[in-house]
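It would be a great kindness if you could assist me with a short task in structural biology. A protein sequence and the structure tokens that stand for its backbone fold form the material at issue. I should value your view on which stretches of the chain appear to form regular backbone elements. The record follows directly beneath this note.
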Amino acid sequence: MHIEIYHAEICGLCHKAMEFFRSRGLNFTAHEVVWDGEKQDWVDSPNVRDMKRRAGDVDFVPQIFINGNIHIPGWRKLEPMIEAGEFDRLISGVE
């Protein structure tokens, strides 16, 4: 199983998601993106272009991918999945 997360350093929910993965002993690859608050847009970078290609024209992080094809758009989607046991079921079925 391979987890990837697009995150911004200033994003508390991103850190919460990464801490959850760490607490569960789950390895993940973190791709940092930077939000320009003045321009209200992402600072162009290879990570931003890749995130947009995979997640669409999103304006929030974290964007989480499991094995490259399962997309979890944000902590507000991940948290209820965790609470309902759906995340555990999801990762137990993914090799």
Notes: Strands lie at 3-7, 28-32, 35-36, 41-42, 63-66, 70-73.
